[in-house]
Amino acid sequence: MAEKPQPVRVLYCGVCSLPAEYCEFGPDFEKCKPWLIQNAPDLYPDILKESNAKEADKVTEQLQSTAISTGGGDGAASSASKPEEVKRLPGGKIKKKEKPEVVIEKVTRNKRKCITTVKGLELFGVKLSDASKKLGKKFATGASVVKGPTEKEQIDVQGDIAYDIVEFITDTWPDVPETAIFFMEDGRKVAAA
Amino acid sequence: MFKKFSSEDVSAHNQVKASVQRKIRQSIAEEYPGLEPVLDDLLPKKSPLIVTKCQNHLNLVVVNNVPLFFNIRDGPYMPTLRLLHQYPNIMKKLQVDRGAIKFVLAGANIMCPGLTSPGGVLDEEVGAETPVAIMAEGKQHALAIGFTKISAKDIKAINKGIGVDNMHYLNDGLWKMERLD
């Protein structure tokens, strides 16, 4: 290979930033359509057939969407305050969750240091003081039982161990099924399994 | 793994010393022989090479504020999708069928049946634990970068469960991070 392979130029959608051919799987195909009609009409012959009457609406929509994408930086900040709102919303009709589950949350402090909190282990009949000792030993960090926000006790472990903790929990306490372990990510529960 | 990824996750970035730079170049050249002719353009010897450390033991190789490669712990370097789109032939390719696209673009790992079905293409030479480009039926460009969990032969034989781990896909956090400063 003596000569350099030329870089391929890929057409990226101006609205959703995906390669144009993937717009149909993108976050909002509708908003991409006006851009596609202008820039890549041959990729999606179908949308050309759609009536042009809505053209005016679409352009304004497109403008809005670009405005949103430029303001993307703010999105991260607002998502942080989300979890509280979500909790408040169903305040009228509180659904009581009877299902015991272990929730693992990573709290960042000081940029690169963080604390992993484990909630709900006691629901499986695990002694928290024992558990914290085991966790501390396993990960060679400080681990302590702390009174959580709602009078519930939780275990704080120093360092980011969310990566390995699931396996450790399921191994040490067979009563805890992997399906009952959840991660908190941006205020949403994500199953660990 | 880049599903949630933003500049907030960057914990440190350093300009690396020349010896480390050489090492990175070497391992990239070894991994992707097809890139060798253009490697000088991608990683110019003169301009500083920056390695950005992120959470979850993730490293990004950044040149001129553009992330080009990433790796995990001491794993192999993998190109970002924007780079792969420019030089599509540097990696082994696996193709998933059309039905799988939307799941892959939501961050799902690639399941074996999506690779073995009529719309999928398997490169039999791919071994376990190798980075691969994930292409899609009827599409020109790669939609994800994966790390095989089992070899292509096993994928065909077992035809069940996760075949390839999805590392980086279109419109994830790293994709949106076009420039990093």
Detailed description of the structure:
- Chain A: It comes from Trema orientale (Charcoal tree).
- Chain A: Residues 102-173 form the SUI1 domain.
- Chain A: Its main location: cytoplasm.
- Chain A: GO terms for molecular function: mRNA binding; translation initiation factor activity.
- Chain A: Interacts with the 40S ribosomal subunit.
- Chain B: One of its GO terms (cellular component) is cytoplasm.
- The complex is a heterodimer of chains A (193) and B (181).
- With 193 residues, chain A is α+β, with helices and mostly antiparallel strands.
- Among the domains of chain A are: 20-63, no CATH class; 102-191, Translation Initiation Factor Eif1 (2-Layer Sandwich).
- Chain A is 37% helix and 18% strand.
- Chain A has a six-stranded mixed β-sheet with strand order 3-4-2-1-5-6, covered by helices on one side.
- In chain A, strand 5 (181-185) and strand 6 (188-191) form a beta hairpin.
- In chain A, helix 1 (29-39) crosses helix 3.
- The radius of gyration of chain A is 25 Å and the shape is elongated.
- Chain A starts with 28 loop residues before the first helix and ends with a strand.
- The relative contact order of chain A is 0.10.
- The model of chain A is unreliable at 71-95 (pLDDT under 50).
- Chain B is built from seven helices and ten strands.
- The mean pLDDT of chain B is 87.
- Chain B has a five-stranded antiparallel β-sheet. Chain B has a five-stranded mixed β-sheet with strand order 6-8-9-10-7.
- The two termini of chain B are 21 Å apart.
- Chain B is globular and about 45 Å long.
- Chain B has two domains: 7-80, Roll (Sulfate adenylyltransferase), CATH 3.10.400.20; 86-169, Sulfate adenylyltransferase (Roll), CATH 3.10.400.20.
- With 181 residues, chain B is of the alpha+beta class.
